[in-house]
Specification:
The protein is an alpha/beta fold. Helices cover 46% and strands 12% of the residues.
């Protein structure tokens, strides 16, 4: 059974977009996934996103995706929200993934904007509505025009918010003005999907984060969130500024690449990457260590 949620925080407040651990030969590492999931929840995460971008979803099979959801739910599903990525640029395929995730025990779905095909807003509306209709699970939209090629316009977000199972949005649009209007008019639970903007988005009404850097700094993110919620703006700002080198360093290249490198140095499950992603060079690894050290994170 999923942990307790509220309409304001349907998936909790701090969630990690979890990497998918692979074995040395590139296979799915389910034991590693369970170990990593437990570590992240022990660190203070309310939930985990599996089979998302950071989970290398473009290069995992449908069968692997279902196995991963089942394994993570088994490991931490009684104390954390397990949200499964189900979005693709093919609506019919997305519906299959949504149903598979529900059968595997997921507590919610993450649905990214269809990428590459650049559908119009009516196409986005019908796509997300079809996903929400496919199961009884609550849905988090994922608005990331830098990857998908098209934004979910505020008017479309407001329309989608009328669906009883579309309850949240992961915002990686990088536009605080649009976010302000969308939060105010849609009533959706708003999650920052851009670590650099975690605190700024809280200031305009976000309820929490879907984070990549939380693989390494969940306690710090939790402290920043708690400070903000308690009204200690000065402390929240201090933590945000201390974490700036982490936010910068982890995204000098693709975040999965840096995250798996950092996990390897910390002895945590992650394993290799699947092509077309490639490992950090020695020079990039030294740069990552340098960046993280400025925030007190040692590899």
């Amino acid at each position: 059974m999923a942990p307790t949620s509220t309409p304001q925080t349907p998936f909790g407040r701090v969630l990690t977009a979890m990497v998918t651990p692979f074995t040395a030969d590139g296979g799915l590492d389910l034991d590693g996934a369970q170990q990593l999931a437990a570590h992240l929840v022990d660190s203070g995460n309310d939930g985990l996103i599996v089979n998302g971008t950071t989970g290398e979803s473009p290069t995992t099979s449908d069968v692997e995706k279902a196995k991963l959801v089942r394994a993570v739910v088994e490991a931490v599903g009684d104390r954390a929200h397990v949200v499964a990525g189900a979005g693709t640029n093919d609506t019919a395929h997305s519906l299959e993934l949504a149903r598979d995730a529900a059968k595997a025990g997921a507590h919610g779905l993450l649905a990214v904007t269809p990428y590459y095909s650049k559908p119009p807003q009516e196409g986005l509306y019908r796509h997300f509505t079809a996903i929400a209709d496919a199961t009884e699970l609550p849905v988090m939209l994922y608005d990331i025009p830098g990857r998908s090629g098209v934004p979910i316009n505020t008017e479309t977000i407001v329309r989608l918010a009328d669906h009883p199972r579309i309850v949240a949005n992961k915002d990686a649009k990088g536009d605080l003005g649009r976010a302000s209007w969308a939060i105010a008019t849609s009533g959706l639970a708003w999650y920052s999907g851009d670590d650099m903007l975690n605190l700024p988005l809280l200031s305009v009404g976000a309820v929490g984060f879907v984070s990549v850097v939380s693989h390494l700094v969940t306690p710090e993110l939790r402290a920043m969130l708690d400070a903000h919620l308690s009204g200690d703006v000065t402390k929240a700002t201090e933590i945000h500024q201390k974490l700036l080198p982490v936010f910068t360093g982890m995204f000098r290249t693709q975040g999965v690449i840096t995250t798996k490198a950092a996990l390897a140095h910390k002895g945590l499950p992650g394993g290799p990457l699947r092509l077309p992603l490639v490992e950090l060079s020695p020079e990039e690894t030294e740069q990552l260590k340098h960046d993280l050290s400025h925030s007190g994170v040692q590899l």
